[in-house]
């Protein structure tokens, strides 16, 4: 990657030979994704190596633009989803790759390295699907693993996480049992040095200059950018939004002189139909899963308003468990919690002088009630609960919630200080409590404790 970066600056031919040599001498991800069972085999590869290496085929594609490199990356991501995927956008990898049980760990380094890989892939391919995946990790997996002040972080997270305590769990590697605790050095120090690349690199990849001499906004967040176009025009753009907590994104385009150029915008796959207005006039109503292009003469103060209507949908995971999603956000059970700062006299050099444990104070063993897609909006009532704050990523500040009804499953209890095996959905006559209860789901990224992959149960009258 760095060799091609330098080649693009200097044009030195020997760098292309060096790129080929490095490619030949390093692990062949293209072959592994296309022709081996690497991604369906537990323990086959280190989780962070995979997050870094998934971009290797497309980095090489820059010099050797062959279809197999595009195919390898697509198949790699599809197999990660199929065999190891979880509702937070990443995969089971608690050191080694570890399948899709929602209590397997996902490392903070995997989140930030996967984001950087997706950003690199997006820049090369311009494929909207990779931006959807990037936002999934950025707005779900990433924020849960750092404390609000960014002074402590969590080494592994679980999609179903009901106890963040010091305990040896069913991970490939346990680090004194500290992996789920919030701390400076819990788990292993890599995440402490790596965590800082997540948000800044995401911000760096919100905007691109394009090959067709225009500009592109491919992932969305409030931002400002100055982009130099060939021909000497500089475009200052301002993006105002509370996305992913709101559907509308407002861009102000300020070129230094009137100029004709394309402005590319991504319409995510989860969006059925977007709406684009330019200076208040309807311009386009594009379907989801594409990048649209507004080509016109731009002048100072032009306003583009992009609306991406969000709706409730569900995804299916291990044991037919489901996650409830809306736009780029996964929603997870809000669990009452109590936290305790633990002074670590036992092994402070390895795992830090202190760490925080979090335990649940309310039940979590709920099954969602089987609902056809056509009734999801009725059964899952989404609402705004508080104005968007500058730091929405904790349970208290969650800007939105979903209310629904669920029944508890008595046989689904704690196992080894984590949620026991998730009951298979939809099992005929699974024993549940008779009483339906109101439960609240909040955005995954705002939770500490959570269930995000729920078992699904039938209504009593369906038996
Ligand atoms: Zn790490």
TrEMBL record:
Show the Pfam families listed in the entry: Beta-AFase-like_GH127_cat, Glyco_hydro127M
- Recall the taxonomic lineage recorded for the source organism: Bacteria, Pseudomonadati, Bacteroidota, Cytophagia, Cytophagales
The processes (GO biological process) annotated in the record are: carbohydrate metabolic process
Q: Which SUPFAM superfamilies match?
A: Six-hairpin glycosidases
Q: What is this protein called?
A: Beta-L-arabinofuranosidase domain-containing protein
Q: Locate the Non-reducing end beta-L-arabinofuranosidase-like GH127 middle domain: which residues?
A: 216-310
According to the entry, every stretch annotated as the Non-reducing end beta-L-arabinofuranosidase-like GH127 catalytic domain falls at 1-202
Which InterPro entries has this protein been placed in? 6-hairpin_glycosidase_sf, Beta-AFase-like_GH127_cat, Beta-AFase-like_GH127_middle
């Amino acid at each position: 990657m760095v060799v091609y970066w330098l080649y693009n600056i200097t044009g030195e031919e020997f760098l292309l030979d060096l790129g080929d040599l490095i490619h030949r001498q390093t692990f062949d991800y293209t072959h592994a994704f296309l022709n081996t069972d690497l991604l369906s085999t537990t323990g086959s590869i280190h989780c962070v190596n995979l997050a870094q290496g998934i971009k290797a085929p497309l980095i090489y594609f820059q010099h050797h633009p062959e279809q197999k490199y595009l195919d390898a990356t697509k198949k790699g991501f599809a197999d990660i989803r199929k065999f190891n995927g979880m509702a937070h956008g990443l995969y089971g990898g608690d050191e080694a790759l570890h399948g899709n049980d929602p209590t397997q760990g996902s490392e903070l380094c995997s989140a930030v390295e996967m984001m950087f890989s997706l950003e690199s892939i997006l820049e090369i391919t311009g494929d909207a699907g990779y931006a959807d995946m990037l936002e999934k990790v950025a707005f779900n997996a990433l924020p849960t693993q750092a404390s609000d002040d960014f002074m402590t972080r969590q080494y592994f997270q679980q999609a179903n996480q009901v106890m963040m305590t010091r305990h040896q769990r069913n991970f490939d590697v346990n680090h004194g049992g500290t992996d789920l605790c919030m701390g400076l050095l819990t788990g292993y120090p890599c995440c402490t040095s790596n965590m800082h690349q997540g948000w800044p690199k995401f911000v760096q990849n919100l905007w691109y200059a394009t090959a067709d001499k225009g500009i592109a906004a491919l992932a969305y967040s409030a931002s400002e950018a100055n982009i130099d176009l060939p021909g000497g025009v500089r475009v200052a753009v301002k993006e105002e939004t509370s996305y992913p907590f709101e559907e509308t994104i407002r861009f102000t385009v300020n070129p230094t002189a009137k100029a004709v150029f394309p402005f590319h915008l991504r319409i995510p796959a989860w969006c059925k139909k977007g709406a684009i207005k330019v200076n208040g006039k309807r311009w386009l109503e594009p379907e989801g899963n594409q990048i649209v292009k507004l080509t016109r003469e731009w002048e100072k103060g032009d306003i583009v308003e992009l609306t991406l209507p969000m709706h409730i949908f569900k995804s299916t995971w291990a044991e037919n468990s489901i996650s409830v999603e809306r736009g780029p956000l996964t929603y997870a059970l809000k669990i009452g919690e109590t936290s305790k700062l633990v002074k670590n006299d036992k092994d402070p050099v390895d795992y830090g002088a202190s760490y925080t444990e979090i335990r649940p104070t309310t039940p979590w063993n709920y099954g969602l009630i089987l609902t056809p897609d056509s009734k999801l909006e009725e059964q899952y009532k989404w609402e705004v609960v508080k104005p968007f704050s500058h730091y929405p990523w904790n349970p208290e500040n969650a800007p939105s919630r979903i209310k629904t009804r669920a029944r508890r499953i008595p046989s689904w209890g704690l196992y080894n200080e984590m949620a026991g095996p998730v009951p298979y959905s939809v099992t005929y006559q699974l024993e549940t409590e008779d009483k339906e209860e109101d439960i609240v789901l909040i955005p995954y990224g705002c939770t500490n404790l959570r269930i995000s992959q729920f078992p699904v149960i039938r209504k009593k009258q369906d038996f």
